[in-house]
Write a structure and sequence with these properties.
The structure is a single chain. The chain has about 270 residues and is of the alpha+beta class. Strand 4 and strand 5 (about 40-45) form a beta hairpin. Strands 1-8-3-6-10 form a 5-stranded antiparallel β-sheet, with helices on one face. The chain contains 11 helices and 11 strands. It is globular, with a radius of gyration of 20 Å.
Length: about 270
């Protein structure tokens, strides 16, 4: 848990192209707002829960009174695949009795975890991110267990209606994704991945196109860039060191890949997040 709190707005929850390395969960108590995603528009209503996965670019909008609890959740450098890759989650679910109390209790227990302001530029940058991660790491074990229990309870509301991704029934794809996440710091190519899947390179490419609408190499680069974003936020490594740590032998190629995925160079990304 990075942040939890309660926010009241009056036509001022309007932020463009927000994209963060953590997931957001909202519980709306009053008013109406919208979240614009590449996949469509989510209309936020009272007594409903909403989730925005990490790295999901979105724009928020409201033109009147809008109040909500918010929770920012981050899991550091995991090597397994993200749960959002295995399941298709609904963006909205109706809240259950007691969900508001869960948020209220977290806010009461951790008042210092509230955001300094609703503007992402006030908290979504390297020094604040590191500060929030350190604060969580310094918590007592029982506090982490309590928080994890609350977060899992809220996540279960979405999990109730989640559906396994089609590819989860294909052991070949599952084995490749597991291998990618376990070896994200290594140089990965289609030759290696096709051997993991025990299929030919052209067939593996067709599998990825069918299930992910992308090639195996593009998928690998996407995941490497996501990890690079975390490293640029949380570490003092040079761009070249970040590239080499993720299995890129040519840091110039890494810069091109990073820009293709994010629209910014690694240096620009780091400067913007300072």
């Amino acid at each position: 848990m990075l942040n939890v709190g309660y926010a009241k707005h009056d036509g001022d929850w309007n932020w463009q192209d927000v994209q963060s390395p953590f997931a957001r969960i909202y519980y709306v108590t009053e008013g109406y707002a919208k979240v614009y995603l590449a996949t469509g528009v989510i209309e936020l209503r009272p007594h409903h829960l909403y989730i925005i996965p990490s790295y999901t670019k979105h724009t928020t909008w409201c033109d009147g009174k809008f109040s909500h609890y918010y929770l920012h959740v981050y899991e550091a450098f995991r090597k397994e695949a993200d749960i959002f890759e295995y399941y298709d989650f609904p963006s909205e679910v109706e809240a259950c009795e007691g969900d508001e109390r869960v948020f209220a209790d977290m806010c009461r227990l951790y008042p210092y975890a509230a955001l300094p302001a609703s503007d992402p530029s006030s908290y979504d940058f390297a020094s604040k991110f590191n500060q929030y991660v350190k604060r969580y790491n310094d918590m007592h074990l029982y506090e982490k267990m309590e928080l994890r229990g609350s977060i899992l309870l809220l996540m279960s509301r979405f999990m109730r209606y989640a559906t396994p991704c089609v590819w989860t029934t294909d052991d070949r794809i599952s084995s490749v994704l597991d291998y990618i996440h376990l070896h994200l710091n290594d140089e990965l190519d289609v030759d290696v991945l096709s051997k993991v899947a025990c299929v030919s390179k052209p067939y593996l490419t067709r599998l990825f196109q069918r299930h992910f609408n992308t090639s195996p190499l593009q998928y690998v680069n996407q995941k490497k860039v996501e990890k690079a974003q975390l490293l640029l936020l949380t570490d003092d490594l040079t761009i070249k060191e970040v590239a080499y740590s993720l299995g890129f032998n040519d840091h110039s190629y890494f810069i091109r890949v990073f820009k293709k995925v994010t629209g910014r160079t690694p240096n620009n990304y780091r400067d913007e997040m300072k």
